[in-house]
Write the structure tokens for this entry.
Amino acid sequence: MTAGPKPSVVRLLFASSHPGPTVTVTVLAAVIAAAVGHPVWLVASVALTVLAGQLSIGLANDWIDADRDRAVGRSDKPVARGLIAVGTVRTAAVGTAGAAVVVSLLLGPVAAVAHLVLVAAGWAYDAGLKRTVWSVAPFVVAFGLLPVVAVAAGPEGQWPTWWAIATGAVFGIAIHCTNVLPDLVDDAATGVRGFPHRLGLRGAGVVAFGSLVVAAALVLGGQVLGDDPVRGRGVLLAVVGAVVVLGLAVVGVRLVLAGRASRTLFRLVITSSLVLVVELGFAGARLVV
């Protein structure tokens, strides 16, 4: 039996970039940009900029963690499997970071600064904060700034509402905790003791899905009680979105309390973020101050 053709370098680099989170964050930014009424070219620019930044963060993670991933036999990491050289991933990480800087400048000063800080937070996590109790901080900063990047893009540099920023920051907690939970054993074996590790499976899981409920409440309150509240169908959509996320949070808590630390937990949080962002767009909530 002969082996199949070796994957291309581009495909291996994409697999090394944490494609799930990378694509999801890009989609979130694009949907928010579209929801505030940016023209198509600006929405595309936001998506391209965020994509470059997320690719750099994901690639940097696999480059920096190459030895650790090999030690625990991470079969989902091309570098750990020896399919691609560490130097190639490092070059791609630096190159996409440089591209992120360049394209950020096209979004205007406010969005550019916000995005550069967002990317710096991701790199700081990769470079060492992931091993400390402060591992959650880069996620709070990065996801709190994501609405700023999407809304402030363009010459006017408008700011998003406070509750949009707060929702992103709270989502960052949920995303960090659920993304780490399946790797608790591997991380412990290689000396990684971040914020979720110190809470343990059940503690971190409850914090994650509790944060998810807070995020849903912030979005619901911002839409129906904000300075420019939604009306009619918008209220119905806001309530439905909150109820769906609450249901997903209940499922997540039940899985956590049952001791099931799988990727399903992370997918529940990602699905919730997409539900709320899409619902925001259809409900017509005002996201600009």
